[in-house]
Amino acid sequence: MRSLAHAIVRSLESGQALELVTVLTASGSTPRGPGAMLAVFLDGTAVGTVGGGNVEFEATAVAKSLLQSQQDALREFRLIQGDAASLGMVCGGDLTLHFQYLSADDASTLALFRELLEATGQNRDVWLVRRLDNEKVSAMDLADRDGPRHLPGLPLDLLENAPALRDGWFTLPAVRAGLLYIFGGGHVSQALVPVAATVGFRPFIYDDRPEFAAKARFPQAAGTLCGSFTALSRHLTITPNDYVVIMTRGHQADFEVLVQTLRCGARYLGCIGSRKKLALCRDRLLANGFTPEEYARVHAPIGLAIGAQTPEEIAVSVTAELIAVRAGVIA
Description:
By secondary structure, this protein is an alpha/beta fold. Helix content is 30%, strand content 25%. The protein has 8 helices and 15 strands. The chain has a 5-stranded antiparallel sheet with strand order 3-2-1-5-4. The model is unreliable at 83-87 (pLDDT under 50).
């Protein structure tokens, strides 16, 4: 969302209008689900995606035409091979795309996307809310957990973790609260931070060695902090919105972090290490009063089983598991 919001703001600030394409509904097998967005600009370039392939090719062509006529529109696409109204794809689903004209002369639109861009760097939930009157967007606002800023009447149950469409309201979770706390600033963490950041996580590095918690070592991290592994609560407050990855330099530090985070309620808790090391860690935790059910929350060995060996491969494996938890595919 940050790169998309930045591109929109840059275009509007330069006096150039654009067409914002959004997947409104999707059924069956489709390349992208509701909420996927593509911004198409006057020079023919685009940022974002609504699925690639013929869908995106056709959507971009429609967006360019609507941009010239300064219009909003709804279009349906069938992804069924051989169907007269289809795009010749074999996915077997249907998409409804909404096309919204964003004028560079509308100061309120620019202000909204500037605010959205700023929100992408903050640790709070933010939704993009649009009011649809048939094809036309009649109003647009940002909302937090308390509701929209300036747009009354939105049912608050539409502020969900997934895009929602009902009675002319379309809500899109644009920014999600929660940090990815990575304990340990070694080689695997260095590989993990850029991969996780690319798919929307906000990594935060914590290490007890200043050189391994240096911001310059992790330019894509939301933050870094040097502190003791035995006194995390002095520096951090981990919430149910957060993700915890433990990959310190040694078994004792891993154990110390697990003792302090196992009951914190984080959405994800994973620990790197061999099965032998993790079994020893489990035994120590049980001896210290933790239950087998509590330890069962730990993703250990960490990451999806893809045969990862190098730090870069492990980063992909861990990020894939984080995505699966965020999407609700695994607990």
